[in-house]
Input
Amino acid sequence: MARKLDRNSLLFFGGALLLFAVVQVLISVGVLTDYYSTILRIGAVMAIVSLGLNLIYGFNGQFSLGQWGFYAIGAYAAADLTYRWKLHDASGVTVLLMVVLFVGLALWGLGRLLSRVRGLDILSAFGLYLVTVFAAAYVGVRIGGLLAGPLAGALGALPAELASQVVFFIAVILGGVVAAEVAYLFGLPVLTLGSDYFGIATLGFTIIVKVLLDNSDTMFGFEEMKGARGMIGIPHQTTWAWVFVFLMVVVVITRNLLHSSEGRAMISVREDEIAAKAMGIDVARYKNLAFVVGSLFAGLAGALYAHINGFLHPNNFNFIRSFDPMIIIVFGGLGSVTGTVAAAFGWAILLEGVLRLFLPDGFETWRFVVYPLLLLIMMLLRPSGLLGGVELPYLRQLMPPLRSATKTPQGSEGGQA
Output
């Protein structure tokens, strides 16, 4: 068994490395232009955000339309950090880093404390969480402002390009963590709703995020985001190498999570919530786990997306676009990691490549009609999705062999006296 797993791992990572090298060479020699390179990077970003939604909906059974809101949070959070660093201002990195750290510690500590309290209703607990988070964020802002100078000096000692890449990496990670912490807070009261009502609530969350981004310059004082005019001047730092590395990390994390006991518990909640609760599984905990990890992936994807074109506009994150990752996971197959990744790249190539280039002039917007029709046809012919039930050997969970029935020794049956 171990030898087979090792071979599958070798084939998976070897094939992935070969694919990365081939695409990188084609980009370097100019065979793949910037346009096609951008399509591939967008495809990888969509694969990351869709894997997060598949974890929430495909594996945990929670119908969510809020993935695009967390995608937007990650995009704007990371873009603001790299934009400020471009202006030689390290305060954005230090402040957000301290806020994330203190808020995370506050959430963990309050969660441990409230787990010992009996009979506390969810809205009262949510109120305590909000007060604690605001207090922790205030402390983080104050301490982060004090650390801006030392961090700027430390990064200034590095070569300019290396320092820029370090800030970019930190910004992407922080964009994902901010989305995850917001998801944890949002999920506390909302995950108690049924699946349909949960979907409506998450759709409302996406709309709220879009409206807040429209007014980010006036309501929150982030003048560099320019509100409804759109944010410009974001560094173009999301290369094929960066997006490929993050995609591979997300795939491996998803695979290992699903193969763990926590992953099996999440899947059991999808199959039968009542039966899972009867078996002693903490349904609320595993719903929140799937929601937070899926939102973390969305934040990472948004942070990477922000640095592809160097421009963000709130209209990129409206509620209509929130259906894109849903379409991708349904097209690829609910509960299929392989199908989600393949469908994400297929979505990007079809929508931004084939249909945009080959539709007659003036009919480019018809691509938004063509691919939903293709999805409808596929749902009629193959309801399980394009690759539903299909996984690469490395991603497929191997079940332990059945134990053979223990043979009773001859003459021991009946227990003759």
